[in-house]
Amino acid sequence: MSIDHDVRFGLGAGLDALAPGAELAAALDRVSAAALTGEDLAAYVRGRWRLLNRASAELLEGLHHLGRAQAGRTERLASCDGFSGDEVSAQLGWSRTMSSPKLDLPDDGWDDHRTDTHDDIDPDWFQKLTQKTRPTATIPTRGSYDDEPPF
Fold first, then answer.
1. Residue 126: inside a domain
2. Per the record, which residues fall in region Disordered (predicted)?
3. CB within 8 A of 77, min separation 6: which ones?
4. Residue 34 maps to a domain
5. What is the pLDDT of residue 54?
6. Which domain holds residue 136?
7. DSSP helix/strand/coil, 124
8. 16-63 pLDDT, tens per residue?
9. DSSP state string for 13-54
């Protein structure tokens, strides 16, 4: 005698059998999560999750088309360019920081202008600056001032 643990009955079996799409969405819309229990509730959540994943995949595909689109043409660029993040951001009200990962862009471009080493800061000048009581909004680089901070 064998036991098949994958046999499902009722609503759960019906929802799990449907592919993510309009038919699954309609079936889920006909029931309320508040009225479900046990395996039926679990099947409801799995169905919603599959619909969400499908919608996310379709959105990402659309974003990649938008990021590679050319004005008035259906041909797409081979890859996203420097303005792709701006296009997506403008359409969805997102920042470039939010749109860049969705388009597989490395970053928003601002990191190219920063340095992590701070090799351009004179340590002696910086020590004099930090010993002063008045804070400064920016850290001047070597050569910005001759000997002393301007305050």
1. yes
2. 95-151
3. 68, 69, 70
4. yes
5. 93
6. 115-151
7. helix
8. 889 999 999 999 999 999 999 998 999 999 999 999 999 999 988 998
9. HHHHHSPTTHHHHHHHHTS-GGG--HHHHHHHHHHHHHHHHH
Q: Note the pLDDT tens digit of each residue in 102-115.
A: 887 765 454 444 44
Lowest mean pLDDT among 5-9, 32-36, 140-144: 5-9
One domain for residues 17 and 60? yes
Same domain, 93 and 143: no
Domain membership of residue 24 (yes or no) is yes
Number of domains in the chain: 3
Q: How far apart are CA 122 and CA 105, in angstroms?
A: 35
Residue 54 shares a structural domain with residue 30: yes
Q: Which residue has the tokens 């920016």?
A: 138
H/E run at residue 101? helix 96-102
DSSP 140: P
